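Morning!

As promised:
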Amino acid sequence: MKIAILGGTGPEGSGLGIRWAAAGHKVIIGSRLAEKGEGVAAELKAILPGGEISGSDNLTAASQSEIVVLAVPYSAQKPTLEGLGTALKGKILVTVVAPTQKPKARVWRLPSGLSAAEEAQQQLGDSVRVVSAFQNIGAHNLKDLDYVADFDVLVCGDKRDDKQVVTRLVEDAGFRAVNAGALQNSSVVEGLTSVLIGINIRHKVKDAGIRITGI
Amino acid sequence: MKIAILGGTGPEGSGLGIRWAAAGHKVIIGSRLAEKGEGVAAELKAILPGGEISGSDNLTAASQSEIVVLAVPYSAQKPTLEGLGTALKGKILVTVVAPTQKPKARVWRLPSGLSAAEEAQQQLGDSVRVVSAFQNIGAHNLKDLDYVADFDVLVCGDKRDDKQVVTRLVEDAGFRAVNAGALQNSSVVEGLTSVLIGINIRHKVKDAGIRITGI
């Protein structure tokens, strides 16, 4: 599949990008500035010479792809999605956004009372199929393709078929996906990010994650 | 320690009670009706003949204990705590309450915008030390004292010392405790209960739980 990663220059977006390229997908690293996207794409190709990885601005990346991943900080979510409505129409938007605010170890309730994923869905309307995933994984080890994860990726969304597509992307990235229910439940998954940041701090580790047991 | 379990006649409260009694604590099963508390205490003593387990009404149980556990359904939280202010003064109240609403697999945002644990803290005031724990464990296997858990218990609270006391109680029940931060973060832990109920339904299991990885 052709996957655009908006804000793909950050550690999580680029880490997922190289993993999907390694699994045979075509990856476009999107950025506010095309040059930045191209620069990070070149760095990733240096690690994975055979990978089909290119870079461009976010709008071009979204327009040229079947699946679009939103990997920007929460503060950039709304402005990034503005103007992308047409490019995203009919597509799955996978959001990895987890809002945090200082102190980051405290769960932040957004003023809207919604999750960031629901805010994206509201902004874009029903013609875009928003699915939430990857909020609880550390970016630290993603570029190490030999790294074997012991955590799960929780997937929230309102359409079963869309979650199945994202489940395959999670597996292609090397992780186990667990269906965590409706998009509304993303508030819990996003809040877990703050909880895990706190656990990282208290345990002096970088990549606390969660695993679903008993299944 | 002397531990009262308010609403201790339910599966989670009674399951924790027998585990703490097995670890040498004195357990009082509290109920709205003293006879019900006494009845369940008798059942638990039949399973664990050496255990120090008694039953009474909630107020008597709270008054006679050093630690009080709130194990009622969310709908009973507020009425149960009414009139217990004096009995709870200066004590740790461990709340296991996780609000759910149909459909239970959907995270329920309380009208207050708070977690159930924060609502309890607000209702009781600062002289009661509320700590949140045990929301994400299935009650199914608790009474099987040979059951070895692979899940963790997340502990939220605003005072480090109180969380350490509760951490020891978690360990005495046979589980690993993980400090999940401030009481505010309990909204995530409580919401996880709904997510886990959904996972139980989809995977046709009874006791999905969570484990923190990477620590």
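DSSP finds eight helices and nine strands in chain B.

Hope this helps with the figure draft.
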